[in-house]
Amino acid sequence: KKTKTQSKQISEALSKSFLFSSLSPESLQTVIDATFGPTKLKAKQTVIAQGDSVAPNSPALFILEKGVLGVFKATDGESAPGTQVFTYDKKGQTFGELALLYNCPRAATVITQKESVLWSLDRETFNHCVKGAHMAQRA
Which residues touch 96 (CB under 8 Å, ≥6 apart)? Predict the structure, then answer.
């Protein structure tokens, strides 16, 4: 069960994302309730790996509660994880949206650089909660 503070942090993070910005408060709450976590990770753990596909019930979208994560991208011929291109270090930052929307392989590798705490949402839950809410709004 999430604390009120955790629910508020997840709500604020999701509200900033175009994927969730048009949801009604009730639908947003359903998504918040469906997020998994908190998952505590040690430094140097791979959260996602470039090129991996995402199973329907595997974590797809991640929300940073605390910590520091490096984003690495390998170009053709470059060994994994490649060159660091970005750092997630602010509470509420999200990553993994492409896997939610398009079921495409991961575009980058994300590795914890310090102990980190993440929340996650799988694609199946996203499709049920978010796409279902959009369909209901259109009806």
Answer: 48, 59, 60, 61, 62, 106, 120
Residue entry with tokens 């909660």: 129
Cis peptide, bond prior to residue 81, ω within 30 of zero: yes
Annotate 17-54 with DSSP letters as a single string: STTTTT--HHHHHHHHHH-EEEEEE-TT-EEE-TT---
**Token code pair at residue 2:** 């999430």
In this structure, the number of other CB atoms found within 10 A of the CB of residue 54 comes to 20
As a whole number of angstroms, the distance between CA 124 and CA 91 comes to 25
Classified as helix, coil or strand, 103 is coil
Which carries the bigger pLDDT value, residue 99 or residue 115? 115
Q: How many CB atoms lie within 10 A of CB 75?
A: 7
* Predicted confidence (pLDDT) per residue in 92-109, tens digit: 999 998 888 888 899 999
Centroid of chain to Cα 1? 19
Q: How many CA atoms lie within 13 A of 67 on its CB side?
A: 26
Give residues with Cβ within 8 angstroms of 77, minimum separation 6.
none
